[in-house]
Fold this protein.
Amino acid sequence: MTDSPFKGILIFPQRKIDQITYSQDIIKENITLLKNINIQIKKTFEFKLKNINPATYIGKGKLQEIYEYTSENDIEIIVFVNELSPTQKFNIEKLFATLNIDIIDREEAIISIFSKNAKTRFAKIQVELAYFRYLLPRLKGNTQFSRTGAGISTRGPGEQKLEMDRRYILKRIAHLKDKIKKMKAVFIEQSKKRKDLFTIAICGYTNSGKTTLLNKITHSHGKTLKRPFTTLDTLTKKRWLVNETVIFTDTIGFIRDLPKNLLEAFEGTIDVINNANIIIELYDLSAADIGVQINTVGNVLENILKNKIKHMVIFNKIDKKMGKLRHKSFEKRYSEAFFISAKENIGIEKFIDFLKIQKEFVKYK
Ligand SMILES: Nc1nc2c(ncn2[C@@H]2O[C@H](COP(=O)(O)OP(=O)(O)OP(=O)(O)O)[C@@H](O)[C@H]2O)c(=O)[nH]1
Ligand SMILES: [Mg+2]
């Protein structure tokens, strides 16, 4: 039996510099993200924000309005789409103290999802590190974990009234970093053994179909779901490609404003991308905010890549209505890209044929 969802509201203050055109997509993306951690958004407060209030991010008047709605509608959690500084979060919590609700920001929400989806030891350790790093500057007086369970070893709603002191967390962070370092060393040793194997990394926005594509190419059965961040660990599969075995890897998906703490904690997983010979950038052609997705993936890759690696761009989900509608115009704009449907097996063979040529080209360059 699943627990009934928490009743939440979403706070979306738009600053002038935000791309207003994407606001509905951002709201939709957040509502979907939050469903994953059992939060049902009852109402969105979307409004313009001229200046950020250093103490509470948004203004007193708006906070009053939110307070009234929250108390009249039995709201259990308030989610800010933006990131809140530790002080801002603390001050807002103080203002809402009489209501017994949780206040979280985007970073905590994303860490919660990662925490829920982490299945292997390595993924769990990396999420735990991200969470403690998030928590550390936010420790003030009585620390209460939010009920959504970003708390590692989540034990279900309502129970996480843990108090931890700074020293414990610092010790834990050091311990986790050490563990990650040791595990990374083992992975490096393993990958040295595969050093001569040609590696192709599938990168892209979360939910773009990376695992579905990996499954199709390598005839395997990695978990695919209609929700973000299903894959947190690197999936590695082999396939024979022109007289040799080639490794295909599928890693965590990217998302706009991926919290820095997570990106840094997942350094071990991201290393895989850096060791690839070819990177496939995969996009969901049917995604409403495809422009943002292309920019996001581009930026993340730019930040994490240490060497120049050959990129190939693929637009997936051409079988979907929006994918079909955009197909022609994107083909004109991205003349070197491939257009496929990983699910319906369209265009994959053509792509593989091209990949075979590229592989030889990259190898003997
Ligand atoms: N219609 C359609 N759906 C697809 C296609 N490729 C993938 N999907 C669906 O899109 C959803 C996400 O696919 P995944 O392969 O899990 O995506 P991912 O990029 O690995 O996602 P994360 O691991 O969560 O970052 C699933 O419901 C897939 O069935 C496609 O070509 N067409
Ligand atoms: Mg996946």
